[in-house]
Amino acid sequence: MYNPNKKPINKSRISKMEMGDAWIKNFLQKAQVGHVASIDGEQAFIIPTSFWYSVKQHKIYFHSNAFGRLRYNIEKNPSVCFETYKSGRLLPSNIALEKSFQYKCVIVFGSVALVNENKEKRVILDGLLNKYFGEMKQDKDYRRITDNELKQTSVYSFKIKSWSGKKNWPEKADQARNGEWPDLNPKWFDFY
Questions:
Q1: pLDDT of 10 strictly over 60
Q2: CA 51 – CA 110 distance, rounded (Å)
Q3: Could you state, in order of their start, the residue ranges of all structural domains in the chain?
Q4: Exposed (0-12), middle (13-18) or buried (19+): which is 109, by Cβ within 10 Å?
Q5: Which pTM value belongs to this model?
C-alpha cells in the first residue's frame, strides 16, 4: 500500500511520470495560474493566483489583497502547498479505468513569508508584471505601482522546500487487448 510518509513527499507513485528539476523550472516560468493551499486549524483553503518563479532566488512570489483569508492563514501557519498545471485532450478508452486526460503539473511544498519592505515588494511585483506583460514598458505603457497601491497589497515569498513535476501526456489511452472487449469506435478519438 502506498504511504507518502515512507518516501519523500515530493515523489510520485508512478516514477515514469516524474519530471526533473530543469523541466520543473521551465514549467514554472511558463505556467499562467497557480493555486496556493493554506490551512487555518482544520479548515483547508485554496486560491488561484498569478505567480512568478525566480530562478535566481529559487522562490515563488505571489500577491493578494492586504487583508483576507490567505494572509490570515499564512500569518498563523506559513506551511503551504502550491500547484500549477496544464491540461490537454481527454483520452477515451474501451476500459473504464484507462480513460484519462493529458496533463502536466508541478506541486511545491514549503513555507511562505510576508514581504513587508516596500523596495522588495516593488521588485517582486515588477517581476510579476514582467512575466505576464513583459512587452509593455513601465512609465511608458503603464503607470508604475504607487505607494498607496503597495499598502493595499500583500506580497508573499514562497521558500521552496521540495517540489515534484509530473507529466501524463500520451497520444492515446491504453485499450483492451486480445479480444477482451470490442475495439472502441474510432469516432470517440475524434470527438474527444
A1: no
A2: 15
A3: 13-91+103-170
A4: middle
A5: 0.86
